[in-house]
Amino acid sequence: MDEIAFWPARKLAAAIRSRKLGAVEILDHYLRRIERYNGEINAVVGLAADAARKRARAADRALAKGASLGPLHGVPMTVKEAFAGLGLPTTWGIPAFRDNRPAQPALALERLAAAGAIVFGKTNVPIWLADWQSYNDIYGTTKNPWDAGRSPGGSSGGSAAALAAGLTGLELGSDIGGSIRVPAHFCGVYGHKPTYGLCAPTGHALGDWAAPADIAVIGPLGRSADDLLLGLKAVIGPDRADGAGARPSLAAPPRRGLADYRIAVMLDDPHIPVDREVQDQLQALVDFLARRKTKIRAARPAFDTAESYGVYLSLLYAALSQAQTPAEFEQNAAAAKALADDDRSFRAQYLRGSTLAHKDWLQVNSRRAQLRRRWAEFFAEHDVLLCPVAACAAFPHDRRPWPERSVAISGAPRPMAELSFWPGLTGVAYLPATAAPIGFTRSGLPVGVQIVGPHLGDLTCIAFARLIEREYHGFVAPPGFR
């Protein structure tokens, strides 16, 4: 029965709906696999098994009476630890929040339940959700199922690792700097970063942080493109405070087959190099698409990517600045004033961004608006952009201080902080992007492609990922967990 653990959520839902398998049966199968395999990768860090079995039994009884609870009827799934609910801690990996159990579950968990899903546990994150690794002093280190010595990505690293290892049927993560897309890329699964504001993040917060953070979104991870669509449709919608009238309308995919798409390709950048093996896998996909008569050309939006990256970092660090204590803010503000005008180091950009005056933030936001207009002009001529998810495949675990960390790009060390370039390119402009697996490096590490679409073009991104999955490459289970 182990192969069932790797079925897409869509297939699990169909098996339950046809009563070939029961919700309790599948849930117990995942729980047994967690008991058997989770110790090897430490992806699932909290279980609410008893409550989940109760809901699964109710789902099976409802189906026996001819009732459907929704498109995810009976499908067992886990969610990122940062979502409140299940009676489990919501800590963001921060020891001070070890016993934080919000009484109100995240709105997304309520919506998943309304779609029929059986949410039975939580998966690991890095402290403050701020790393492309997933370790903290509460839960420990999550390992990549393809190579335990390497990171599964972050901050939704536990989410992607659990999916790849066949420990859950579907996942829900969040993304401000690649936190859905990079783990999907590192672990060989699918992930979708929705258009900003499409899915209310209510309940994905700490303390009294009620306002949604700039750039940050919540979104699904799965083992197929169809799973992304199921997960997205389950959680899409505004916060209750916004009212039903705020629900956006997604554009239908404009094309049907690969030959109908207008594809822009951007495999590298002069400012941030991409590892040769990652580029090779992306080029192999491009070559395949060319053989299928897809309309492809090398193209990028009409702006300086270095400027875009600077805008992203300023707004990112500003969005994260509320985590500072008053004393930390004053210290950082003093350090920012002492910087040389030409200092463009990551430390300097962090200090400036995290202490931006509101007037300065408005000016940076105006620059973002200009970038968004250039993107809109670009997507008037292209359906999707294909580009890297990150500059490298999964890297070895590294707990050194951030300024000392590096990753190997074509054999040469580069600052780890540069990995935010490719996720930030689209994130700062609020655009949707899907990460889809396309192959492996020579050493067997997964490589994904980032499929970027226009504002509210989420369905186009996922539809193109589905075509790649069907005709080129899809999810492959890591050998140690089959």
Assigned CATH superfamily of the domain at 2-256 and 470-481: Amidase signature (AS) domain
The CATH architecture name of the domain at 2-256 and 470-481 reads: Alpha-Beta Complex
Mean pLDDT: 96
Count of strand segments: 15
Major β-sheet annotation:
8 strands, mixed
Cα-atom radius of gyration: 21 Å
Along the chain, the helix and strand elements come as HHEHEHEEEHEHEEHEHEHHHHEEEHEEH
CATH fold group of the domain at 2-256 and 470-481: Amidase signature (AS) enzymes
Q: Helical amount among residues, as a percent range?
A: 25-40%
Tell me the β content.
5-15%
Indicate the structural class: alpha+beta
Report on this structure.
There is one protein chain. By secondary structure, the protein is of the alpha+beta class. Among the domains are: 2-256 and 470-481, Amidase signature (AS) enzymes (Alpha-Beta Complex); 305-368, no CATH class. 36% of the residues lie in helices and 15% in strands. It has 14 helices and 15 strands. The strands form four sheets. An eight-stranded mixed β-sheet has the order 6-8-7-14-15-11-9-10, with helices on both faces. α5 runs parallel beside α6. The longest helix has 22 residues, at 358-379. The model has no long low-confidence stretch (mean pLDDT 96).
